[in-house]
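Minutes, project check-in
Item: structure for the 146-residue chain
Input as provided by the requester:
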Amino acid sequence: MKKIIIMDIITALVILLFLYASFSKIFDLWYFKYDLSKQPFPKWLQNILVWAIPFSEIFIAGLLMLKRTRGLGLYLALSLMLLFTGYTAAILLHVFAFVPCGCGGVIRMLSWPQHLIFNIFFAVIIAAAIRLRHKTLQDKQLRMQV
């Protein structure tokens, strides 16, 4: 029971994060497009990312809301957070020249080191939720065999 509560809390946090981040980008689309134009990506990719990022976040949040698709949602959320984390690490390692934050809302106010910690924190708790989910499913299968 405790595992399920922890998993539900983590899932709720990730849903809130992804919905907040996506709607912040959508509601301030001009600013998000401007930030993306300053990213080290080709123009054609920027035009895709301006819609793909927020709608991916909404899609993943939707998957996380449904018990039936929560497992897939957790794996996709972890993948997206690891992509964001890798990109942030590359910025901190000066792989790119100046790069503005293309984030939405208050997340935009974080420094790059704070952003890296934030992303790592969410990647770790999502990974923990995946592990808890597997343990819970294994426990359930063992109970059914007895």
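Outcome recorded: The chain has a mean pLDDT of 90.
No further action items on this chain.
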